[in-house]
Amino acid sequence: MRALVPLLLDARAQYHLTIGAPGLARDDERRFALRVLDNILGATSSSRLFQEVREHRGLAYSVFSFQSLYAHTGLIGLYLGTRPDNVAPALQVVADELTRLRAGGVTPDELERSKENVKGRIVLSLESTAARMNRLGAAVLNELPLLSVDDVVERIEAVTIDDLAELTAELLAPERLSAAGIGTDEDVFRRGIEPLVPALAAVPAKS
Questions:
Q1: d(C-alpha 206, C-alpha 6), whole Å
Q2: Domain interval for residue 74
Q3: pLDDT tens readout for residues 100-120
């Protein structure tokens, strides 16, 4: 269910905004494709959101996407922190990037780079005994299959462009999005999210 949650604080220099939607459960086999998609969208410094919002235009202090998987559901979202006058232009770029992702999907080069990045981070995590034990412990506690690193890499390698297109269409549809913001002026927040989710921007303010 969509929600608009403005929280007005005395934070004169910054606005903090989060856009989110229901995601995948932790036992959903599509979680490997979601990890690849998250990498492309905003999880790394080479992602679309980071490059377009921060690097190319300098519109935000911080911008990234994220995903969390729980027992029967999950969430996917993005965070953006910027000054008041950049809220609207930054979120317009975010809206444009989500529209481009939904309309055109990802390129073969993006797919391969993302898969290599995800696989590389998994292999690097093997250098940490704590990380390895946490991964195994989490699988046991969550009653998930104990996948070897080779199994995980194989599932990531199997992700296709069509897999990502289906996830994008399902998880990032505008009607599924909710928003929350911290700042001093609710109108700034509402104007900013209008390109992303017009229906939310029109929700009456609470007195």
A1: 10
A2: 4-201
A3: 999 998 999 999 999 999 999
